[in-house]
Write a structure and sequence with these properties.
The structure is a homodimer. The first copy, chain A, contains nine helices and 13 strands. By secondary structure, the first copy, chain A, is α/β, with parallel strands linked by helices. In chain A, strands 3-4-2-1-5-6-7 form a seven-stranded mixed beta sheet, with helices on both faces. The first copy, chain A, has a six-stranded mixed beta sheet with strand order 9-8-10-13-12-11. Chain A is globular, with a radius of gyration of 20 Å. Chains A and B meet through β8, α5, β9, β10 and β12 of A and β8, α5, β9, β10 and β12 of B.
Chain lengths: 342, 342
């Protein structure tokens, strides 16, 4: 952690990810000298509590980023595309959480504990992209296994919570479940199918090949973060009636033999991973255990005899706190360290 | 369907599966001449509605099965082990839903539309095992693909609903969700972790190799039903906060090339399968669509470029109506036809 307290700007401060950024700064006691909060016209003048103070939320202007060490952009792709270059023009690098730059090869895609060396690439355009929450969790859980045995292929089922669709998603699930328990079919949402007591095999818009854009991103994102250019990934994303926590069911094959026992050992020594794996005592990863946890929980590790060098596992991480906010704040800290060191 | 109306015994008539058997008989207008309902002491004298009549529930005795064409056993493994031989001694074959005989090589394991020829094996011990609901759904969805291209390996994530744990499971989920929406942590259950707004990667007891018995059964069950002795299967089962409907996320590889387009065609011509696959119009399988449906819904079919001859798909089926009851009643009908034909 940098010793010099940070000057941060947070754009999208009233959204689900913005709130999680504030919680992460508080929970990990990140030294903060100044925190500027921004949101859209709709939310300006809202007061947001941070470390006992009430901070005012402002609307962005050209001078908003002057003097900041880093900006955290969590207000949607359009806002990020517009404001990241302006922040950089004021000398402030951005950590983008919106997904606007995840496909851009000129923008480093970084998981702080896995490929911090990628931050060097931020010096050209002043932007670092934080990957989607499932990619962050998968990268943290799989990087140690990749180093130990060389990942070849992943078959992933992603179980996405309502909060992956922001505060609107959380409210939708609450509303639907309340109606259904009262014996009424809830009003249909314009945004999505019913989440309440249902499984929706669509997260985000569809792209090519019958896959969602989110599903298609998993392979290129993990290749970049894990520096595994030959890694093959297929993924199916399903929205589940859970508020917080990404559930990831992973079947993996490796180049060299690994085995569940050794995988467990390797993961026990890894940063930001907790091995939660005593099935006989009913101990395994679950969203209710991962909420507000700063680690990815990994368990149900077992050899898969259906293919050579194959393993099955389940990983769960708080999509907002660990997947989104936790990674972005760590990147901001590292960026500030780089600036103060140079 | 047999023309001669059936004489049936239903053991476990007041449980979740028993109720689904009654619904299946009603919905498909199966001709029934006589229906004897049985349950434990606790539920005897309960009245159960069937086709407008109120039927009394009795306790089993040695003469209970005399003159019946088939008995449907849905009251747990112990009851099945005890009563299946007695029914057969009275000349009545059993269709077992409890799982007591699924591992027994001397008892045929049958999905009515897939391997009805297995029923011939019922003549020795008078028992046919109906597979677990996920195996029924997978067999129906995959048999046409196996015939078309030869299945080699399946990687499955099974999303099990609360009703997979019977009426107690349904009540637990209702109770937990009600508490949580009211801001209270629900009383812990002795049976399982919290299901409400959570994902529990355990369905049933654990066996060898870090797998649950249910997960370990998937490979041998599908090998037998699909007559695919070399098929490799790995599976992870997760309990999800949904009341009804098994969700199955499947990655499959085949011996010969198949492709999503051809797979869709083959499935459109298959019995008991509905292709629900227009993702751009947000049309895909979901539990809320599968409830009370007599077919397995299959969609999200897409080529998986991460391995040769690989495909991804999602299948959903009503675990009680289609997976359990629908298959067992069809087997009972076929058994009665065999008896009347011989």
């Amino acid at each position: 952690m940098s010793d010099r307290p940070l000057k941060l700007a947070l754009v999208g401060a009233t959204g689900a990810v913005g709130r999680a950024v504030l919680e992460d700064l508080e929970a990990r006691e990140v030294p903060v000298a100044e925190l500027r909060l921004f949101a859209s016209e709709r939310s300006k003048d809202e007061l947001v509590e941070f470390r006992g103070d009430e901070l005012e939320v402002e609307v962005l202007s050209d001078r908003s980023f002057r003097g900041c060490d880093a900006a955290l952009l969590a207000a949607g792709e359009e806002v990020s595309r517009r404001w990241a270059p302006r922040a950089w023009a004021e000398g402030c690098p951005s950590v983008d959480l919106s997904g606007a730059f995840r496909d851009d090869p000129a923008v480093p895609l970084v998981v702080a504990e896995v490929n911090p060396e990628g931050l060097a690439g931020a010096s050209s355009r002043g932007i670092v992209a934080s990957p989607g929450a499932p990619s962050v969790a998968l990268a943290l859980a799989l990087a140690p296994l990749h180093r130990a045995a060389g990942l070849v292929r992943l078959v992933v089922t992603e179980l996405h919570p309502a909060s992956g669709a922001g505060r609107a998603g959380v409210r939708q699930l609450e509303r639907e479940v309340t109606s259904l328990l009262g014996g009424e079919e809830p009003d249909p949402s314009d945004l999505s199918h019913r989440m309440g007591f249902n499984l929706v095999p669509q997260v985000g818009a569809f792209g090519a090949g019958g896959r969602t854009i989110e599903e298609s991103r998993r392979e290129p994102e993990l290749r970049r973060i894990l520096q595994a250019p030959g890694l093959r990934v297929t993924s199916t994303a399903v929205r589940v009636p859970v508020f917080y926590g990404d559930g990831l069911v992973v079947n993996l094959t490796t180049e060299r033999p690994l085995g569940a026992e050794r995988a467990r050992e390797v993961l026990r020594a890894a940063p930001a991973v907790k091995v939660v794996d005593a099935p006989a005592e009913r101990v395994y990863p679950m969203p209710m255990l991962a909420v507000n946890d700063d680690a990815v929980l990994v368990g149900r590790l077992r050899d898969d005899p259906s293919a050579p060098h194959a393993l099955d596992l389940v990983a769960v991480a708080d999509n907002l706190r660990r997947g989104a906010a936790g990674n972005a704040v760590r990147i901001a800290e590292a960026l500030a360290r780089r600036v103060s060191a140079s």
